[in-house]
Design goal:
By secondary structure, the protein is of the alpha+beta class. Helices cover 20% and strands 41% of the residues. The protein is built from one helix and two strands. The chain has a two-stranded antiparallel ribbon with strand order 1-2. The protein is flat, with a radius of gyration of 19 Å. It is found in: Gas vesicle. It comes from Streptomyces malaysiensis subsp. samsunensis. It holds the Pfam family Gas_vesicle. InterPro entries: Gas-vesicle_GvpA-like, GvpA.
Length: 56
């Protein structure tokens, strides 16, 4: 399967990417970074759920 077809399929359905990075010295955690990302396409034909200029 070509990469373009795979990317098209992923964006059509959406995908969630999560990960953690912990920096530790002598088994003592000092810094923890968490990543949560959602990749999805946007369809302009779907109406927004709000009636004014936006949710804010």
């Amino acid at each position: 399967m070509p990469l373009v077809d795979l990317l098209d399929r992923v964006l059509a359905t959406g995908v969630v990417i999560t990960g953690d990075l912990v920096i530790a010295i002598a088994e003592v955690p000092l810094v923890r970074l968490s990543l949560h990302a959602l990749l999805s396409s946007v369809n302009e034909r779907v109406q927004a759920p709000w009636t004014d200029s936006g949710p804010l």
